[in-house]
Design a protein that fits this description.
About 25% of the residues lie in helices and about 25% in strands. With about 425 residues, it is of the alpha/beta class. The protein folds into two domains: about 160 residues, Lyase, Ornithine Decarboxylase, Chain A, domain 1 (Beta Barrel); about 170 residues, Alanine racemase (TIM Barrel, Alpha-Beta Barrel). The strands form three sheets. Strands 4, 13, 14, 15, 16, 17, 18, 19 and 20 form a nine-stranded mixed β-sheet that branches. Helix 2 packs parallel to helix 9 and helix 5 crosses helix 6. It binds pyridoxal-5'-phosphate. The site of pyridoxal-5'-phosphate has 18 residues, from helix 10.
């Protein structure tokens, strides 16, 4: 469910025609429905309300400050993976006790900043990292909570690049080593082993891999508890899928219905707090990328629609072979011809495409297209490749729209750069 709907022939974001925004903001641009972000967050919160979980929006999916602020104002915590994300999290005033910090490569500086900021906990991915946290916490006279990220060795049946919980992946710690860490927690006097964390991958449509991973993690929790180590937090990560095309992902309610009974022997209200880290589920369908057709090119074997957005703006199609529905912002009237086209950007790469062999209604140069479901891993993965300024992010609430992040200028492209005369 999202709030990008056609009213007559016009695509609207909530109550604003997308073409109206395009006239004012220019193209290309990302467009977010604030209400859709909140709806998805609230759906998850409601589905799990019986255990009052801590929901930490995974801000790697979308780190727009306005979006973060609106989620935080409704009670969301944040899942961060870098010093830059910590900086953004603090900018939006999230309660630092609602921040969890994952990543296999946290630097000493990032660890220090996070401890000073009094984050809730680190999700620890290796023994050397644990040692660094212990050293830094000692220096800061702090005792820092951590969750050990387990690698449950469960394959979630999703794209290889977003599979994170198998033995082949760089993430997490195997259960044997993790068990030893809990047993030898006395070696880390400045660390409190407070929790266990898993995250098995992203865009997972089926509940089975979640169930398998959670069962494994509960077995682990039982074994460390048996040896006198209480586990205060169980973080089951993110990974819930959305609809890009014909997927039939579980709803928040279906997910809760399958997952919650697994905890029947645990007191999730008082004994162990459940943490969720959804990214895509909250943000994926909450944003679109709006682009304009620059040219049509008809080759003997192929027709190309060349648009003003490119792989630097949305890398998912070239990086993951991801499918995004693409629709005209204003649907043509009358009897419509369709043709199979590649929708490509201006970048000098054959991998620069938004869609391949896509049946599209006939369109004219200057027409607007909406690339749907770009709210997750869209803008955050954009770059300046080919010296293309990053596009603006526009937010809509009801009848109003605002530029939340403006288009970069050419000056922005060279802001931190100088010509080093000494080498010329
Ligand atoms: C540790 C962790 N938590 C949560 C997420 C969010 O995943 P998703 O966007 O699939 O919910 C990710 C994504 O990579 C992650 O690495």
């Amino acid at each position: 469910m999202h709030r990008f709907e056609f009213k007559g022939r016009e695509l609207y974001c909530e109550d604003v025609p997308v073409s109206k925004i395009a006239r004012e903001a220019g193209t290309p641009f990302y467009l977010y429905s604030v209400r859709t972000f909140l709806d998805h967050y609230l759906k998850l919160k409601d589905a799990f309300k019986s255990v009052k979980p801590l929901i930490c929006f995974s801000m790697k999916a979308n780190s727009n400050l306005t979006i973060l602020k609106s989620l935080v104002e409704h009670g969301s915590g944040l899942d961060i993976v870098s010093g830059g994300e910590l900086f953004r999290a603090k900018k939006v005033g999230v309660d630092s006790q609602k921040i969890v910090f994952a990543s296999v490569g946290k630097t000493e500086k990032e660890i220090e900043d996070a401890i000073r900021s009094k984050i809730l906990m680190f999700n620890v991915e290796s023994i050397p990292e644990l040692e660094t946290i212990n050293t830094v916490a000692c220096r800061l006279h702090a005792v820092q909570k951590v969750a050990i990220r387990l690698n449950p060795d469960v394959s979630p049946d999703t794209h290889d690049y977003i599979t994170t919980g198998t033995k082949q992946n760089k993430f997490g710690i195997d259960t044997g080593t993790a068990n030893k860490l809990f047993m030898e927690s006395y070696r880390y006097p400045f660390i409190r082993f407070a929790g266990v964390h898993i995250h098995i991958g992203s865009q997972i449509t089926d509940s089975k891999p979640f169930v398998k991973a959670i069962k494994r993690v509960l077995q682990f929790i039982d074994s460390v508890r048996f040896c006198g180590n209480p586990v205060e937090y169980l973080n089951i990560g993110g990974g819930l899928a959305i609809i890009y095309s014909k997927e039939k992902p579980q709803t928040a309610r279906e997910f809760a219905r399958v997952v919650l009974p697994l905890f029947k022997d645990y007191d999730l209200k008082k004994g162990m707090k459940l943490v969720l880290e959804p990214g895509r589920f909250i943000s994926g369908n909450s944003g679109i990328l709006v682009t304009k057709i620059l040219y049509k090119k008809v080759n003997p074997t192929k027709t190309f629609m060349i648009v003003d957005a490119a792989m630097n703006d949305l890398i998912r199609p070239s990086f993951y072979g991801a499918y995004h529905e693409i629709t005209p912002v204003v649907r043509p009237s009358g009897k419509v011809r369709t043709a199979e086209v590649d929708i490509v950007g201006p970048i000098c790469e054959s991998g620069d495409f938004l869609a391949k062999n896509r049946k599209m209604p006939a369109a004219n140069i200057g027409d607007l297209l909406a690339v749907m479901s770009c709210g997750a891993y869209g803008y955050v993965m954009s770059s300046n490749y080919n010296s293309r300024p990053r596009v603006p992010e526009v937010v809509v609430k009801g009848r109003k729209f605002f530029v939340a992040k403006k288009r970069e200028s050419y000056e922005d492209l060279v802001r931190n750069e100088k010509i080093v005369k000494e080498v010329i």
